[in-house]
Amino acid sequence: MFARASSVFVLALPILAAASVLPRQSNQCDTGSIQCCESTQSATSSVVSTLLGLLGIPIGSVTGLVGVTCSPITVVGASGTSCSQQPVCCTNDSFNGLIALGCTPVNLNL
Questions:
Q1: 37: CB partners within 8 A, 6+ apart
Q2: Region of residue 33 (phi > 0: left; psi between -120 and 50: alpha; otherwise: beta)
Q3: φ/ψ of residue 96, rounded to 5
Q4: What is the pLDDT of residues 51-66, one digit of tens each?
Q5: Non-local CB neighbours of 83 within 8 Å, separated by 6+ positions
Q6: For residue 30, what pLDDT is reported?
Q7: Which helix (H) or strand (E) is 34 found in, with range?
Q8: Can you give the C-alpha Rg of the chain in angstroms?
Q9: Weakest mean pLDDT among 3-7, 16-20, 39-43
Q10: Between these two residues, 22 and 85, which has the higher pLDDT value?
Q11: Do 102 and 62 touch, CB atoms closer than 8 A?
Q12: Which of 37, 50, 64, 69 is deepest in the core (most CB within 10 A)?
C-alpha cells in the first residue's frame, strides 16, 4: 500500500513542478505604472501623432498604445480609487499626464 502511494507521489512531482513555472496573469504592472487614461489610441492616429510631434517624439519609436490624458492609479482596489475608462499599464508616463507611451490594457477585476 505504501509503495503505491509513494509511486503516485513520485509520478506527480513533474506535473506539480511544471505547473509552478507557468506564467500567471495578474493586475500587477511590472513595466511601469497603472494609469487611467481618457482614451488609448494607436501612435498613428491623427490626434496622437499631432501630440507626439509637438512633444518631439518620433512616431516610429512608439510601441503599444498611447494613453491620452492619463492619471496614475496608486492603490488598486482601495476605496475611492476608480477608473471609468480603460486602465492601462504604461512603460513611459513622463509627460505629466498628457500622454503615456507603451500602454497595454489591464484588468483590475482579477
A1: 67, 68, 69, 70, 85, 86, 88, 100, 103
A2: beta
A3: 50, 35
A4: 899 989 888 888 889 9
A5: 36, 73, 108
A6: 76
A7: strand 33-41
A8: 21
A9: 16-20
A10: 85
A11: yes
A12: 37
